[in-house]
Design goal:
two-stranded antiparallel sheet, single chain, 2 helices, about 100 residues, mainly alpha, about 10% strand
Length: about 100
Amino acid sequence: MADTSNFEIFVATAVGAWGMAHIVFSVNEIMNERRDAVILSALEGKPLTKDHKQLILQCDWLPMAAGLLLILLIGLGSAFVASDYLRIDLKSLQVCSSGVAELSF
């Protein structure tokens, strides 16, 4: 099994965070449209009945909010786990003659 460097783990974490952010922002946009439809009682210019608003709230908005929360929890959990792999031991830092800190592995 090949060893992975901190840089590879960082890149994988960054790509995962970007993908998660894209999903979160897309879902948030859809959720806002649904919320506005319920509040304004209109969807695409057509009036909504009370039953239709309740249906949109329970079948569209609440499941998307729960899914968004789940995605955020998974993402934060993954970041927490990855942070342990990205930890830099301060004892391994060495200052070279040029005054720049170097890591020794």
